[in-house]
Amino acid sequence: MRKLLTAAVFLLLTATLRAQDISKMAKAKPFTISGSIGGGVTFYHSTENQYTQPPFAWNLYANFTPTVYNFSFPFSFVLTQYSSSYTTPFAQFGVSPTYKWIKLDLGYRTINMSPLVFGGQNFLGAGLELNPGKFRFAAFYGSLNKAVSEDTTSGHLAQPQYGRMGYGIKLGVGTDANHFDLLYFHAHDDSGSIKLINDTAAIRPQDNTVLGASFKLSFLHHRIIWTGDLAASALTQDLGASKVNSDTLTNTFDKLASHVIDYRNSTVVSFAGQTLLTILLKSFNTTLGYRRVQPDFQSLGIPYMLNDMQTFQLNAGLILDKGKVNLNGNLNDQQTGVSGKEASKLNTFTGSFNLGAMLSTHANLSMAFSTVDISQANGTAQISDTAREDEQVYTLSVTPSFNFGSASALSSVSLSATWSLLHDNNTFTAPTDESNTLTGMISYSCAFTKQSFSLSASILENRFAQDTNTYTSIGFNVGGGAQLLKKKNLGFQVMVGYLLNHYTLSPVSNNITGSANVHFSVKKHHSFSAFFNVVTTPPTSNYINLQQKLPYAVSTTNVAGGLSYNYSF
Questions:
Q1: Residues 336, 338, 339, 340, CA torsion sign
Q2: Which of 10, 343, 519, 520 supports an S-S bond with 381, CB 3.0-4.6 Å?
Q3: Which run of H or E residues covers position 315?
């Protein structure tokens, strides 16, 4: 299959090169180049026991596109201090030469073929994309995972992984508006690529073959759009498992798979599909969607995917009063464990409604409401009533805003109120889970356009209540910014804040926050920037549940800053 794919790519590329319009190439500029290159350094200090980011970091990057007689060669790379790490590399480079409908992908690249077959996954290798007229072709071959051996001595806690190679191909017909594609993807782990010190490690070499199809149909001048994706996956979860004689298989799909792959005791065949119907009218739009993924379905070309689930979705939008009023709503119902093979079934229903209205030339109103309902049912196991999930979360926010002043001094005032409630129907867990939060804020900003500077200020209050305990914060933020020098190429912004905190269970200290940003550009090509921020967060008592609800309420001080440079050409 790999040799056939390589031959097909070579023949298609040869044919396209012969078909190029040499006369147009002669009239084009011999060479042009555009892009940017830059880098930066950052530092971070914290009094926390474990840092959430490295104390010092640096990066270099480049994105540029040289063009030779209408042939473009987009190239990019990223380098960081982790570039020599044995884990997933942070030194990535890639180039994608492009000419009209021909695109060659070399290095670290990605080709999004299908959300169920191959997409969102980088490969280190080569790929080709051709879209002449109504013909659609894409193919690639390369490394999907770098081999990472188990290491218990260096202090690195990286998860070991086998080296993985993969290739895929897409053949289709149509345009962006109407098309049908067939897809094939295969990935294989090299079982000898790493050393495992602990033989019982929960990692086994895998093999995966996925067949898929995707379509998109547009009707009534793109007012109605119907899309769909289907995929069948044969996943061998352990290449060390013994092979199975196809004559002993009883399932039709298993028998078909045994003619394509080496079927083993650890092989599972499963399916996934999704469809979406969109209606776009002048003042109304809606989307209806459904997604179903069978148990054990997995494509090694998709970084993350839930299986054994189904989802229904409905989105709608309405425009009224010549665009002055916008209404949007959506409903989503996700069910996991639908096959009954999991220990439990979980149903998550979410809904939201948003309103945006222009009341006048100086007044606007925004309102939003959302709800989340989570319920858990028995699967293969009987769930204890003391642990069963059954709760709802409601959130309501209202934000009116007003603007006034002149062209040289424009002011705006906004008021915001947000209420959130967590209601637990489980009488055993309700006392420690139920909570409500109320937040209010008034903010003001003023921009002086002739002087090129602005001022802002806000006052806020937040009250979190759970059982008989409350955590209240009242504070303010003030800041300003300006564009300086004759060409206004030096800019800065500063912001400081202070919060008074009160907790009914124990004394707490107050918050201090501050940040500063500076940007300087030279002759439209060079730009320099720097930032600095500090956050001091108060301690809480040893009340564990409240600390889980307020993970930021720990006694820490975090300081961060950095410098960066960018050259554009």
A1: positive
A2: 343
A3: strand 309-320
Q: CA dihedral in degrees (23, 24, 25, 30; nearest 10)? A: 120
pTM equals 0.79
Residue bearing tokens 């990472």: 148
Q: What angle do CA 58, 59, 62 make, to 5 degrees?
A: 160
pLDDT tens, 154-184?
555 567 889 999 999 999 999 999 999 999 9
Helix, strand, coil % over all residues of the chain, rounded to 5: 10, 60, 35
Token pair in block for residue 59: 């990066």
Nearest by Cα to 136 from 172, 164, 168: 172
**Contact (Cβ atoms closer than 8 angstroms) between residue 336 and residue 346:** yes
Structure tokens at 184: 């094939």
CA distance 118 to 92: 20
- Measured CA angle at 496 (ends 492, 502), to 5 deg: 165
What does the alpha-carbon distance between residue 505 and residue 86 come to, in Å, rounded to a whole number?
Answer: 48
Residue where the block lists tokens 């990535």: 92
Taking the C-alpha atoms of residue 500 and residue 509, their distance in angstroms, rounded to an integer, is 8
Rounded distance, CA 537 to CA 208, Å? 48
Between CA 17 and CA 19, with CA 18 as vertex, the angle to 5 degrees is 90
Strands in 135-223 per DSSP E: 135-145, 163-174, 179-190, 207-219
Task: Indicate whether 417 pLDDT > 80.
Answer: yes
Inter-residue long-range contacts of 195-199, CB under 8 Å, 24+ positions, other chains counted: 195/149, 195/150, 196/149, 196/150, 196/160, 197/150, 197/152, 198/150
Q: What CA–CA distances, in Å, run from 502 to 422, 462, 543?
A: 22, 11, 15
Q: What is the pLDDT of residues 318-362, one digit of tens each?
A: 999 999 999 999 999 999 999 988 899 999 999 999 999 999 999
Q: How far apart are CA 543 and CA 505, in angstroms?
A: 8
φ/ψ (deg, to 5) at 368: -145, 140
Residues 6+ apart with CB under 8 A from 365: 355, 356, 357, 359, 398, 399, 400, 401
Tell me, what's the pLDDT at 546? Answer: 42
Q: Is 174 left (phi over 0), alpha (psi -120 to 50) or beta?
A: left
Distance CA 251, CA 263 (A): 13
CA distance 133 to 367: 46
Give the type of residue at 364. N
Residue type, 92: Q
And the tokens for 145? 């995972």
Tell me if residue 264 falls in helix, strand or coil: strand
Write the single-letter amino acid at 452.
Answer: S
Between the CA of residue 228 and those of 115, 346, 430, 488, what are the distances in Å?
10, 26, 42, 51
Q: Are 558 and 46 in contact (CB under 8 A)?
A: yes
First and final C-alpha spacing in the chain: 43
- In this structure, are residues 110 and 291 in contact, taking their beta carbons and an 8 Å threshold? no
Distances (CA, A) of 511 to 204, 438, 478, 495, 499: 48, 19, 14, 14, 5
